[in-house]
Amino acid sequence: VANEGGKHWTVNEVRALIRIWSDKNIQQQLEGTVRNKRIFEQVAARLQKFGIDRDWKQCRTKYKNLKHEYKSVKSAQDSGSTSKSMKFFNELDAILGHCTMEQASKSDNYESERPPEWTEAKSEKDSIG
């Protein structure tokens, strides 16, 4: 049994936590705040509906640990290492992967959202001039 956090999280408990965490509403609330006790109280209440008895502190601790582990695996992968991995990486990547990538690629996305004829027309003009 883990010390401070009570009993270890089972795979199903972690899956349920990730499922709740993947809720866009929860994500937006978590992104916008540091004082998040109220949000994790909601998360704990939703876990109860799945029959999982965790308090908000346990949920927050697990969330922080998963996020930390994800980030360390992600940065290892980005630097070319494949030795690091974790159990719920793909699920977390679906949630967290977009956060960091979205900000980095906002300018790229702008280009791809334009109708193709805009970029073509622009290049024709350039070649005329």
Automatic annotation (TrEMBL):
Span list, region Disordered: 103-129
UniProt superkingdom: Eukaryota
InterPro entries documented for this protein: Myb_DNA-bind_4 (IPR044822)
Limits of the Myb/SANT-like DNA-binding domain: 7-95
Compositional bias ranges of the Basic and acidic residues kind: 108-129
Protein name: ZSC29 protein
Source organism of the structure: Mystacornis crossleyi
